[in-house]
Amino acid sequence: MAQIVATTRSIQSTLLCPTSGSANERARNLLKPPTFSSKVFSSNGINKCPQDAFRSCRINARKSASVEVIPVSAEDDPKIEEQLRGVPQLLDASNGMWSKPTFRRKTKIVCTIGPSTNTKEMIWKLAEAGMNVARLNMSHGDHASHQKVIDLVKEYNAQAKDNVIAIMLDTKGPEVRSGDLPQPIMLSTGQEFTFTIQRGVGTADCVSVNYDDFVNDVEPGDMLLVDGGMMSLMVKSKTEDSVKCEVVDGGELKSRRHLNVRGKSATLPSITEKDWDDIKFGVDNQVDFYAVSFVKSAEVVHELKNYLKNSGTDIHVIVKIESADSIPNLHSIITASDGAMVARGDLGAELPIEEVPLLQEEIINLCRSMGKAVIVATNMLESMIVHPTPTRAEVSDIAIAVREGSDAIMLSGETAHGKYPLKAVKVMHTVALRTEATIPGGQMPPNIGQVFKFSCIVSYETDYVMAFKRVQQRLALYQGVCPIYMEFCDDSEATFRRALDLLKNQGMVKEGEEVALVQSGRQPIWRSQTTHNIQVRKV
């Protein structure tokens, strides 16, 4: 009888601080738990700053020694506990002490597989470094190259003992791109340049566009962005087949560049003929998720889900929020889907860029309130495509996504064609792990911190082993869930003992902890008519 044991561990806690009428003390009581910077004020964990000097303590900064990237798990490096010892972690409400950190990262990592990572060796290394979901970008490569990656991920899953990688197929969508050029063109500010719907044009002052309605979609005064804003051109006039522009921000124009019009979406179907072909490819290979590009309405999601139902497959649909037209329909789109991706590249091209962080938070909160998965994507470690270390702003970007409650954070070019794919994954892992360790329960995003106050063991039962494998892989995307495949016994007590022993051996629960045991299935192991059961037990 095949089963899934999925465990979740919350970081619910309460900040215990004495109250006082003193303004300085009230300020201290409202501060977040101590972080690295606040250790400057401390000696042996005790704050030595007098109350009267709360505003004027001197900070002595000095260059720190080089710091190793924290390994993926405690088993990878016996020094990991020493590395984190003394670093403030979660506050244990039961005794007011900083508790030992949980080393298993809760926020999941999506890695795009491409030329830098499409070998068996690299996929294995990505999985060991922290990859939870392998993303196939259908804008690049062909079915043969993607088939190779799918086969390698399935091979890894078949032999991995306690890890599983989900597969996400990301559709190309209705992209508007410039045509081919014999060589790159340098565009200068103030220069006139023309886009035409005539095919095969590629000169120093005019290039083709792959979208026949491009002329109808733009008007004089519109701002045209190349590659999300790397270059910009103002539309000055248009004819039946051409759009004349003036270069605002120049640069090097290469072949097949992505084009957006600020504040507008192209009047193209969200799922193109190529997308349907790729979706069928995904059905044939039983991928776990579709990430559907440029979804503008819930009808698109319903159409795809009906197709999948008629195909007899259960692949979950993640909608990519990246077009201006999707924002008014945000609630209905996410309601119809199984989750959302905040695709900040095109979103920031079609909408004012200052709206992107606000929309990111709104989308995350909306998904959390509906119990849907949410992924934050685009430019998270963009500099690591060519550099071995990230910018500090990129590190903060990861931390913000984690604090806001994203289920997963995504790497695109960093792992697809970057020079340092493994380092990028390790940086993302380390930043997410460190950030999670400083989030008290009272400051957790809505619908996370208040759900579980203890570990939760969920068993789900079916007659089909393959169905369980798919559930296990799908759970790899969800925050704080560690899916473990295990054969269950007919006896419920023996089953729970085996499950708890397994989790104790892996260091996921410890003696004295309270855990919730949740069972559900068609044929319950309690041999009664009840198919759902919840218990709370002490390990």
Overview of the structural elements:
The chain is of the alpha/beta class and 539 residues long. It has three domains: 235 residues, Alpha-Beta Barrel (TIM Barrel); 77 residues, PK beta-barrel domain-like (M1 Pyruvate Kinase, Domain 3, Beta Barrel); 82 residues, no CATH class. The protein is built from 15 helices and 25 strands. α4 links the parallel β7 and β8. The protein is elongated, with a radius of gyration of 26 Å.
Please describe the structure with a list of short key phrases separated by commas or semicolons:
M1 Pyruvate Kinase, Domain 3, 15 helices, 25 strands, 539 residues, six-stranded mixed beta sheet, alpha/beta, 3 domains, TIM Barrel, eight-stranded parallel beta barrel
What is the third-level CATH name, the topology of the largest domain?
Answer: TIM Barrel
β-strand amount? 15-25%
CATH class of the largest domain: Alpha Beta
Q: Work out the helix count.
A: 15
Helix content: 25-40%
First-to-last CA distance = 24 Å
Give me the CATH superfamily of the largest domain.
Phosphoenolpyruvate-binding domains
Low-confidence stretches: 9-82, 84-102, 448-454
Query: How much is the average pLDDT?
Result: 80
**C-alpha Rg (nearest Å):** 26 Å
Strand order of the largest sheet: 6-7-8-17-18-19-20-21
CATH architectural category of the largest domain: Alpha-Beta Barrel
EC number: 2.7.1.40
Protein name: Pyruvate kinase
Subcellular location: Plastid, Chloroplast
Domain Pyruvate kinase C-terminal: 468-520
